[in-house]
Specification:
The structure is a single chain. By secondary structure, the chain is an alpha/beta fold. It has a single domain, classed as TIM Barrel, CATH 3.20.20. The chain has helices at about 5-30, 55-65, 75-80, 105-115, 135-145, 160-165, 170-185, 200-210, 255-295, and strands at about 35-40, 70, 90-100, 120-125, 150, 190-195, 215, 235. Strands 1, 2, 3, 4, 5 and 8 form a six-stranded parallel beta sheet that branches. Helix 3 (about 75-80) links the parallel strand 2 and strand 3. The longest helix has about 40 residues, at about 255-295. The two termini are about 20 Å apart.
């Protein structure tokens, strides 16, 4: 094989690799992302590692929006979950609150009035009106006037796995709790967040039989198409989560896919430059071969 042909073969191979890498990197950068963020207590004193200052919460939201994330309503989120393969577009997120802590009510109101964001609020039935927890009138106000979607966090704040270990009828407990809460707030209750994020297959079966359609863990991460609707990922805010090696909402701004995609695109450009260099070498080799052929005539 002539040197020019060999150089051209290498150049072509590198060009194909460059194009494939660029396509892969671009796909990573533009890949759709769906996140569910979970918060508990929104207060200025940050009394425990679940607490977050209101300014910090808003800072996280602004950071996500800066990186092209769009906040969607709980109803839109449910529609996103039901989309088929390759039908999702863009970066989207939903805000959720667990427990119904009283100090979180103002944050939910401000999210709606200043950011236009509708939240989901998961209520523990037995904690309504207890010290440090929202009373019924507050919950209804959030639902009626601030477009807050109400979900169930259990009749009591106990892991569903422990309730099963107690030999309690979990299906009956959840069905009763969702029906009572639904009547109190005048909304069908179909969403559930697992206390402490704990569940198992038997518990998920009980949820389904009780009439709950969507349930959330706290494992963190992007929500993929065809994920189990009774085991949807949420990224829970915990103070200093990064240092503890745990999922953190701010880690997604920019998203991991952008970092990986940018690296892949950069690699594709480097390979592309190498390809050009080999094409130039092939051209030089071709000229040399032609001159050599003429000299031999």
């Amino acid at each position: 094989m002539k040197k020019s042909s060999f150089y051209k073969l290498i150049a072509t191979f590198l060009l194909v690799i460059s194009i494939l890498c660029f396509y892969l990197g671009y796909s990573q950068i533009k890949s759709p992302i769906l996140l569910a963020l979970a918060f508990h207590d929104v207060s200025d004193d940050e009394k425990d590692f679940f607490s977050i200052k209101q300014d910090k919460l808003f800072s996280i939201i602004k950071k996500l929006q800066k990186h092209d994330y769009k906040a969607i309503t709980p109803q839109q989120f449910e529609s996103e979950l039901l989309l088929g393969s390759n039908q999702r577009e863009g970066r989207k997120f939903i805000i959720t609150f667990d427990d119904g802590r009283s100090e979180s009510a103002n944050a939910i109101r401000t999210l709606k009035t200043e950011f236009g964001i509708s939240s989901a609020l998961f209520i523990v039935l037995d904690l309504i009106g207890k010290p440090d927890y929202m009373d019924l009138s507050t919950i209804i106000d959030l639902k009626e006037n601030y477009d807050c979607f109400i979900g169930l966090h259990g009749q009591r704040h106990v892991e569903v796995t422990k309730i099963l270990e107690e030999k309690t009828d979990l299906t009956k407990e959840l069905k009763t709790a969702r029906e009572i809460l639904g009547k109190l707030v005048n909304q069908e209750i179909t969403w559930f967040s697992y206390p402490y994020g704990e569940t198992n297959d038997e518990a998920k079966k009980s949820l389904k039989e009780s009439g709950l359609h969507i349930a959330f863990n706290v494992l963190g991460g992007n929500i993929k198409e065809n994920d189990d609707l009774l085991f949807i990922n949420r990224i829970m805010y915990i103070k200093n989560a990064k240092e503890k090696g745990m999922p953190d909402p701010e880690s997604w701004a920019p998203p991991y896919t952008v970092s990986n995609g940018t690296l892949t695109v950069t690699l594709s450009l480097l390979v592309g430059f190498l390809s050009i260099n080999w094409f130039l070498n092939a051209k030089k080799a071709k000229i040399y071969e032609m001159k050599k052929k003429q000299n031999n005539l």
